Every structure is written in C-alpha cells, then in structure tokens.
Amino acid sequence: MSTTTSLRIAKFGGTSVADFDAMNRSADIVLADPAVRVVVLSASAGITNLLVALAEGVAQEQRDAHLAKIRHIQYAIIDRLSHPHVIREEIDRMLENVSRLSEAAALATSNALTDELVSHGELMSTLLFVEILRERHISAEWFDVRKIMRTNDRFGRAEPDCDTLGALTRSQLQPRLAESLIITQGFIGSEAKGRTTTLGRGGSDYTAALLGEALNVDRIDIWTDVPGIYTTDPRVVPTAHRIDQITFEEAAEMATFGAKVLHPATLLPAVRSDIPVFVGSSKDPSAGGTLVCNKTENPPLFRALALRRKQTLLTLHSLNMLHARGFLAEVFSILARHNISVDLITTSEVNVALTLDTTGSTSAGDGLLSSAMLTELSSLCRVEVEENLSLVALIGNQLSQACGVGKEVFGVLDPFNIRLICYGASSHNLCFLVPGNDAERVVQTLHHSLFE
Ligand code: ADP
Ligand code: ASP
Ligand code: MG
C-alpha cells in the first residue's frame, strides 16, 4: 500500500466495546473516517478479568457464576441486534469452549491454557462488532489476527516477531483491505506451533501499533474512555488537564511508568516508523484528543506525572562487594536467567537496591518474584524484600540539565517518606518510590504544585 493513499488503523478498548451502544458509537467513529480500514478491538469491558479468574482454576460454583456474567455481557449485545440467531450460535460455541477450558484449568492451570482461554474475549467482541456493522449495511470482514501476529511462546507476555508479522500482513491482510473493512483482535497472537498467545494485559494498544507499522499507516488511533493523555491519571487527580501534543519520548516514558492509557510497548513501533498516534475518547470524539508525534513546540520542563503501584524493592547486601568486582554482573545474570528485567536501581559500596520491571508480568498477572530466584540470589548475598511500594515518575524535558528540580519536587513532599530516588540517567524522567498508601496523595500534592 503506498503512503500517498491515506490509511489508518483504529483501536477501541474495553469500555468502547462494552455494550451495544458503546459498539455503535465506536462504529460511528470508524465510519466517519474513510481512511480507517483496519479496526482492532479489545474484549468487552470486564470480560478479560472474568476469563483470567476462570483460568486460575476455580471451583464449579464460582465457575458457573463467572460464565453467567460473561454470557450476560455478550447476550446483552446480541439481544439488541435485529437478526441475532446466527451470531448467537457462534457466541454460544465460544462460550462452550470457555466452559470446557475452564474445567481443564480447574484440574491443572498453565500459561498456555490461560492464553487460549482469555483470547475468547477478543474473539467474541470482534464477532459482535462485525455483526453490528453488517446490520448497518457496511461490508466488514472478521479477521483472525493469529494468522499474522506471530509471537514467541512466552505465554502471557509473548513477544511479536516483527519480520514475520510484516511478511504475513503483506500476504494475508493487505490484499483484503480493498474489499472491506477489517475487524480484528488486539492482545492475542500465536506461536510457531499455532498455539494462542497473549501480549500481556492492555496489549491491544500494542497490537494496533504493530499492525499499523506493518501496514505502513499514516496514523494509529487509540480510542478509549478519556479524551486524550492527561498531565496525570484524571481518576487520581480530577484537575489534571489534557496534553494536546506530546513527543514519542515523553509519552513512552509515561506509558512505561504506569500511565495505563497506553500499553508500555505501544510506542515502540510508532517511534521506529515515525507514525503519529492519536488518543481520544469514543464516548466523546468531538472533545478531540492528544497527538503523539516526534516533535512538539516548546517542550516544557515538567510534562506529566505517572504512577505505578505494587512495586517490589529488593535490597541486596553483600559484604563481598567492598572492593569486589563482578557482584552486579552476577546479580544481573541471575535476574536474566529468570527473565526479569530491572527497573530502578541505586547502589552503594556494599548494597544494591532495585525494583523489578512489572511490565513483563503475564496476562494472568503472575508475581515476578519466584522462590527459585530468591534462593539463587540468597546464595550470593542477603536479600531484603519490600512490597507494596509505588513508583511515582515525573516526566519532562532536559530534567537532568535544569537547576532546582530537586528542590521543586521534593520541597513539597516533606510530609512523605521517599524510599528511593532515580534521577539523571534519562533527561526525561525523575522517579522515586513511596509507600503504597501515600502514593495518591504524593501525586496530588506534586500535581498541584507543578501543574496547577
Ligand atoms: P482501554 O480499555 O480503552 O484500553 P484503559 O483503562 O486501559 O482503557 O486506559 C484508560 C485509562 O487510563 C483512563 O480511564 C485513565 O484512568 C487511565 N490513565 C492513567 N494515566 C492517564 C493519563 N496520564 N492520561 C489519561 N488517562 C490515564
Ligand atoms: N482485553 C485485554 C485486557 O483487558 C487486552 C486489552 O484490553 O488491551 O488486558
Ligand atoms: Mg488499555
């Protein structure tokens, strides 16, 4: 596809396909822009959480209750269709699969089984959306993204193979675009043997960006329940305001450090291929949104605050570290063997404190701290574990070059314990850890003094 004809991809999150009315509002948005030829959907709101719970292997009574809730959410959409019969049969088949897989999970759980189970959320929402479009006389085709979204077999947090995705997109998806609008699933993929995988919770944004890159689109539209990216989560600080334009670097820092509005990996393909990303609200498209692109005018020193909860801090004490070499190398190789990447880190002569990067947690939200890893670390040093901390990230520009940043930030936080600070590695962020219970007040206090 040449870049001269405008081509866009639009992704709608869970609340944007939560029910019949939400799906119709999302359909209106798609139809209002003829450049949108591919639509990526999440599962209807609430469904993935219920599927994850089923995948954990629950007793029959609870299983039936969860299944009933899933059926209720999807039937509420079917019941508003003019011709519900055929689609009801298809959804019933999906629900039977879900039921069968949940029984299997009750006997033995696995990450592969979890992915197979949770994929049904996106499979069902896309089927329903196609039906809604067809009833509106739009030629729309349901496309199983697993045919092209090739990943490795790290179930629950699979990594896409972009070369294969690119080739398969060109051969299997691109030729279809001229015929009809393509409706496909976010979040799910398949590994070489054909088994279903998932990209991690919130991964539909990432799917949209990956497909957008493979299709060489001129914009990726992310439709959600907020009209853009705000100076901080508007649920935490109601006075937060929208950022009309933001650079890839700033938005990527926000996503990495917990701004749930974008999955942390979303901007990788966008930056790589220089594709602008628009974020808007499907509830109120006329409210506009945020454009993420590679340059903005007058980037401010302080741009936004992000908050990531449930952080685990490991403090490692080694007496051997005094004048010793190789301690950090050993620590890192243990962590690498356990597939864990380090997030924040500070060191002293005999201590190293680090947090684990939770963006790698699986779709089932598994904890990252395994006892095998702790045992291995303990053979090297004394390990202290602190849970329930929150990471607050101040995102901005030229932060490490400016004077007075420390005073401006920490001056207003004197009532709070600051457990760890990371500053200077990136000129785009200043990160620190606070006790989980203080996190919201810290963000509110800081937002008030830096952004209001
Ligand atoms: P979707 O299901 O559409 O992917 P999400 O719930 O994953 O939606 O993301 C949208 C939510 O992200 C918003 O409701 C908001 O509470 C949260 N959020 C966190 N940080 C920000 C921010 N800086 N700007 C806007 N929304 C944010
Ligand atoms: N449905 C998946 C989730 O809830 C993926 C997504 O919504 O992006 O995590
Ligand atoms: Mg999301």
TrEMBL record:
Pathway(s) annotated for this protein in UniProt: Amino-acid biosynthesis; L-methionine biosynthesis via de novo pathway; L-homoserine from L-aspartate: step 1/3; Amino-acid biosynthesis; L-lysine biosynthesis via DAP pathway; (S)-tetrahydrodipicolinate from L-aspartate: step 1/4; Amino-acid biosynthesis; L-threonine biosynthesis; L-threonine from L-aspartate: step 1/5
ACT domain segment(s): 316-388
A Pfam short name: AA_kinase
The reaction(s) this protein catalyses: L-aspartate + ATP = 4-phospho-L-aspartate + ADP
UniProt GO molecular function: aspartate kinase activity
This enzyme's EC code(s): 2.7.2.4
SUPFAM superfamilies xref list: ACT-like, Carbamate kinase-like
Top-level taxon in the UniProt lineage: Bacteria
Keywords of the record: Amino-acid biosynthesis, ATP-binding, Kinase, Lysine biosynthesis, Nucleotide-binding, Transferase
Root EC class: transferase
Family: Belongs to the aspartokinase family.
The protein's name in its UniProt record: Aspartokinase
The gene coding this protein: lysC
